[in-house]
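[09:14] KT: can someone run the structure on this one? pasting the chain below
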Amino acid sequence: MSDLTFSQPVLRILKTSTLFFISVLVSACGNSPSQQQMDVQIGDTFYLEQAIAVKNGYSRVHFQEGEIAGAWFDHYIPHCTIELSDIVDRDTSFYPGPFQIEKVRFGSEDYESEGVIDYVYFYLQPTSESEAEADVFRLACAGAMDEGLNNPAAQRPKRKQINQILGNYGQVK
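[09:31] RB: done, structure tokens below
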């Protein structure tokens, strides 16, 4: 059996190609979706319109069909979740105000035997004019659970549907 050897120029090409491929993969993971994929982009604003209570021991508030959905929401209906950076240690509220969208990312959750939920995550930062809580971390919105039936409601919601899901509690503008 012979040893496989490469000349210096071939090794350099292989290393360069490998580094290029890795950098493309890493940059693809960090890019925001295009305007065609998602009509809410970095620089847009999420307005929390009403104060929202968060119970002791929780870090999320779920919304469906314009209402607060409580701790247990229906995964088969499009929904949004406002997430705090930490679990609260007492009953508290966070207050209305504008949040700048600093980052937009796609993700999904696989519920093994049930299906997949595709999410869009909006990472939020209170604006300087806002009295809103700095603990508000992100807005996560998703379509209905997709059971492999190509249900149109399973697509990630865009601006109009997000605003319908949030109702009078918040709007993306």
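[09:33] KT: thanks! The helical segments are 8-30, 159-166.
[09:34] RB: yep, looked fine to me
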